């Protein structure tokens, strides 16, 4: 390796070194993951609908895929994140619904280098009628399916059912997008309590990375007051990066592109900056 560890490491592993590593004397962009040789599973959850779970989870996957091998898992039967990556959901019974059954492993579809997906399928909603024990199965399936991936990201449905529980039981880290309108804001205590119960009873190694404020409208007085109240109440459990409500975000999503690939206009650029900062914060905390 001599005086050129970066060249040596890049040639050997294809990953760039960013700083000094306590273990090997150098560190690559995903060193923490490689040193520990484990997959980090990040769940994006909030039982409220329309808060930005899908929007943030696909951005997080795109961000992580720039530096690590990512397996995206869509357990929401709406299939919105699946359609961001693929042309359609999987055939009935072949995608993520298999995570909740004792049988075959789900299909994994390669999106591109560093990014693959277990897509939503048409029978996913049936999982809610299955016996409660199925909540233990995703963790077992993912231990096998995710071998060789650095990061698993799970987008969840807007309900407190078996799919959300199954995802939380499989998680190492959970991030919670939250809107600041009255309706979203009101469910927050239930949500934090659910996470606490799952951690205490079923998955002590899961960490709640924090609440990610999304669709913030700084001109809205009620939202500003809600944000201040939330920060006073929950302190650093509210992530310091905030995502504002910006129309180019929705347009980029409809074009199946992360916001940072849509650089025209000041609003798009600001949104790109916010989304990258939020992804960096979540990735760093999840892999710390
Ligand atoms: N920062 C943002 N700026 C503007 N629009 C946004 C932003 N974040 C999300 N949206 C829009 O808000 C809507 C809801 O977002 P999204 O589908 O990600 O929420 P969700 O929590 O996944 O919803 P569901 O619970 O139904 O799955 C979408 O139309 C999306 O384009
Ligand atoms: Mg969604």
Unreliable segments of 5+ consecutive residues: 1-36
Name the bound molecules: adenosine-5'-triphosphate, magnesium ion
In DSSP terms, counting alpha (H) and pi (I) runs of 4 or more, how many helices?
11
CATH superfamily descriptor of the largest domain: P-loop containing nucleotide triphosphate hydrolases
CATH topology of the largest domain: Rossmann fold
Which oligomeric form is depicted? Answer: single chain
- General shape: globular
Q: Total strand count, please?
A: 9
Spatially, the strands of the biggest sheet line up as: 5-6-4-7-3-8-9
- Could you tell me the strand content as a percent range? 5-15%
Q: In the CATH hierarchy, what is the architecture of the largest domain at level 2?
A: 3-Layer(aba) Sandwich
Structural class of the helix and strand makeup?
alpha/beta
Largest sheet: 7 strands, mixed
Please state the CA-atom Rg, rounded to the nearest Å: 19 Å
Estimated helix fraction: 25-40%
Query: CATH class of the largest domain, anyone?
Result: Alpha Beta
**How would you spell out the order of helices and strands?**
HEEHEHEHEEHEHEHHEHHH
Structure description:
This protein is α/β, with parallel strands linked by helices and about 290 residues long. It folds into two domains: about 1-35, no CATH class; about 40-285, Rossmann fold (3-Layer(aba) Sandwich). The protein contains eleven helices and nine strands. About 45% of the residues are buried. The structure holds adenosine-5'-triphosphate (ATP) and magnesium ion. Magnesium ion (MG) binds next to helix 3. Adenosine-5'-triphosphate binds near residues 50, 51, 53, 78 and 214.
